[in-house]
Design a protein that fits this description.
This protein is an alpha/beta fold. 43% of the residues lie in helices and 13% in strands.
């Protein structure tokens, strides 16, 4: 899953692809580089970020999704949003997956996904982006996150979304400190019991803490280590900035572990 941030303030590439022309060009290059899914987002959910009104978010992402759908009609496009209005507009414009950091807890989101026939990624986040990194606490982070995601899968299924259209994401960096993140990654293979697993580790702060790379753009080597681990644990989807490099990492690890089970 290649990241297409149509935002002025994302932690790694804010402002780089904020205009439709730059965003579409970037997305098409990610596809050439090996992205199977193009994840378009119009609201930064970095720590301490402010929410963006739905109409502004729609104005950011819709021109990009419409052009991508027109110029690459067979591309798989996901909309990275927690708002049902944005999800509905994006799905109408050509997206086929909703990637929701709030696990479709907003009223009406499950119904939008169900009625559209789209896929849905359910992510765990503690609180909201503005407050999630203020002293996050868990009884047992792996158990707590897995229980939450299992409940959201059941809620989605009860709303009428087929289980084979669901994907779960433990939410690395979303209301977790470095030890929480590492514990979740160590146990990430166990999340496969819940279904398809997506993980986003690309350039995140815990990688900077482990490697000393203060600049998010300097964290791709550390990201490669985390992506390799995820691939070895049979994670289904990794969400990354540097698709070209990380797709190579995944192909090598896949070749090693393919017949290991």
């Amino acid at each position: 899953m290649g990241i297409v941030n149509v935002t002025p303030d994302s932690f790694s590439d804010g402002g780089m692809f904020a205009g439709p022309d730059d965003a579409v060009k970037h997305a098409l290059q990610l596809r050439v580089d090996g992205a199977d899914i193009l994840d378009v987002g119009g609201e930064s959910t970095r720590p301490r970020s402010e929410a963006v009104p739905a109409d502004e978010e729609i104005a950011r992402v819709l021109p990009v999704i419409e052009r991508l759908h027109r110029e690459a009609p067979d591309a798989v496009i996901s909309i990275d949003t927690r708002k049902r209005e944005v999800a509905r507009a994006a799905l109408d414009a050509g997206a086929s997956i909703v990637n929701d950091v709030a696990a479709a807890t907003a009223p009406g989101m499950l119904e939008v996904v169900r009625d559209s026939g789209a896929g849905l990624a359910l992510m765990h986040m503690l609180g909201d982006p503005k407050t999630m990194q203020v002293d996050p606490q868990y009884d047992d982070v792996v158990v707590d996150v897995r229980t939450f995601l299992a409940d959201r899968v059941e809620a989605a299924a009860a709303a009428g979304i087929p289980r084979d259209r669901l994907c779960i994401d433990p939410g690395i960096g979303f209301g977790k400190n470095i030890e929480h993140n590492l514990a979740l990654l160590r146990a990430v293979g166990s999340f496969r019991e819940l279904g398809t697993v997506l993980v986003g580790v690309s350039r995140k702060r815990f990688i900077g803490e482990l490697t000393g790379a203060l600049d998010p753009g300097d964290r791709d080597d550390g990201t490669a280590g985390a992506v390799a681990w995820c691939a070895a644990q049979r994670v289904d989807v990794v969400r990354v900035h540097d698709v070209r490099r990380m797709s190579r990492v995944v192909r090598v690890v896949d070749a090693i572990v393919r017949d290991a089970e």
